[in-house]
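<amino_acid_chain>
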Amino acid sequence: MAQAELQPPFIPAEDADLSPLRRREFRLFFIGSLASNSGTWLQNAALSVYLFNLTGSSFWVGIATAALFVPVLVLALPAGALADRTDRLQLMRRSQMAAGTLALVLTVLVALDVANKYIVIAIAAGTGIFGAVAIPAMQSLVPSLVPKQDLAQAIGLNSLTFNIARVIGPMLAAAALYVGAAWAFGLNAASYFVLVAALGMIGALPFAHPRGEPGSIAEGVKFAWRHPKIRLLLFCVMAVAASLDPITTLSPALVSSYGLDSTRAPFIFSAWGGGAVLGVTIGGRLMKRLFARRLGWVGLPVLSAGLLCLAAAGSLPLALVAGLIAGWGYIAAVISFTTGIQLAVPEALRGKVGALWTMCFLGPRVLSGLVDGFLADQIGPHRATALFALPALAAMWAARRALNLGEAPP
């Protein structure tokens, strides 16, 4: 899929009728994804607060982040190949059932007050394994749920579930943590099974495409590396992922520095998600103009500005404003880059290149979480947050060049 002028799929046109949601299969997938993604962000926020309160250290929060994303680096490419060779619906159902079971185990252990930092990290690693298996299959599934003319809008709606979830999930976490951490983890466990039920109701894929020869894992890597635009955009995705880390790893420490209880940290998560949602709704026309001129890279300096404002904030209200700014920059950048990649990938390699995207978006969190947590313990969360604005700024040249390259694979 390739076009010279990119219409960002996550921004609905003025006359959009949300036609993909009129299709039963995509509607079920949308509902299940929204529930599951909300649960994931609920757990991300709750786990950061729970582990910070358990250990008093941002470094241990960073270790949990690394444990969650190490499996992505190890398994993403084999999982992408698996998604190209097997029944993607079945693969997603089984992986989500396994992850939901782990979430139930964590809920019970926390409720019984027998969980410790090692147990939490082990469960985070297990969740990461099943997530690494599911993500390429999920990315590859959308084109099989809608006809080609609805694909751009379907990708956009699917992206929107992630960003709405970044608002809903942390807000639920903030509410549940007041009652008890077990409630937060229990809600996350339930969300997995909502997606499992939705996938079970879809049945046969209505617009399944012939896959051709699936090829080897190396073929997908070679394709991405030899395609200059994809190569540069994957680098930019990595830069965005690295810069985002303080929002998840350091929010509890930042909130504590304001003299507040760390259970209010999820509000910073929600502000980030809220900035993304506002960017694709109220700010949709502005984004359309930016993308029409291939200026999606401007999200990178905006993301950096949001992080610098977060580093300078001395109160929670100012931190929330900074989160909104960072969220707008994030969505403008990452969806632009991701769309450019999706448009250039043939069907037979979609799972493998999707796995590379997963590695680039989630893999940097392994190192950035450890570094960010360590720096926060040594020099304070505010200075550590400021330093993590640098990767996004450093990627600006690559992003500008990539968005002006031709679309056709070499």
Q: What stands out?
A: The first helix runs from residue 24 to 55. The chain has 18 helices and no strands. Confidence is low (pLDDT under 50) at residues 1-16.
